[in-house]
Design brief:
Number of helices: 5
CATH class: Alpha Beta
CATH architecture: 3-Layer(aba) Sandwich
Order of helices and strands: EEHEHEHEHEHE
Strand content: 15-25%
CATH superfamily: Response regulator
CATH topology: Rossmann fold
Number of strands: 7
Strand order of the largest sheet: 3-2-4-5-6
Largest sheet: 5 strands, parallel
Length: 165
């Protein structure tokens, strides 16, 4: 069954800067963004979330996301590492990944798409710009349809292959 974005869908926001997370949450409220937002602070936590490990084992509280907004420059495992890991996981192959970063470097853009990113957004410099971007993202997600992440009969535990690093 195909699903459009609504309050039952989950967005996973991965960013290591608390101020950026707060600004995103504020922009989402200002843009009347209805999807549920989960946040993690680095790539290592993002992988644990997606695997359902540790504190993220409760899928009622931490559901698999429909879309992941992923920063690139983070400690532990950077966004490229998360992107690489996700695209090697058969259960997560359909996860929509939008890079949301401060870097507008052409080499980062090309690398992100080469590794399987679905979109690449550069964080705006102003709150008004961020709210406008979130409004566009909200509208785009509203009209999109998303397939389920895992195949029928496959357990979410199938994601549990370990990250090599």
């Amino acid at each position: 069954m195909w699903n459009s974005m609504d309050e039952k869908q989950t967005i996973l926001l991965v960013d290591d800067i608390d101020d950026d997370l707060s600004l995103m949450k504020h922009a989402c409220r200002a843009a009347h963004f209805k999807a549920s937002m989960q946040t993690v602070n680095n790539g290592e936590e993002a992988i644990a979330y997606l695997k359902g490990e540790g504190i993220y084992a409760n899928r009622e509280k931490y559901p698999l996301p429909t879309v992941m907004l992923l920063d690139l420059n983070m400690p532990k495992v950077n966004g490229f590492g998360v992107l690489t890991w996700v695209r090697t996981q058969p259960v997560l192959k359909r996860l929509s990944i939008i890079i949301l970063t401060a870097s507008g470097r052409q080499e980062d853009i090309e690398r992100a798409f080469d590794l399987g990113a679905n979109s690449y957004l550069v964080k705006p410099a102003t709150m008004a710009g961020l709210i406008a971007m979130i409004c566009c993202l909200r509208d785009w997600l509203e009209y999109n349809h998303f397939p389920p992440l895992f195949e029928a009969g496959k357990s979410v535990k199938a994601i549990a292959s370990s990250y090599p690093g």
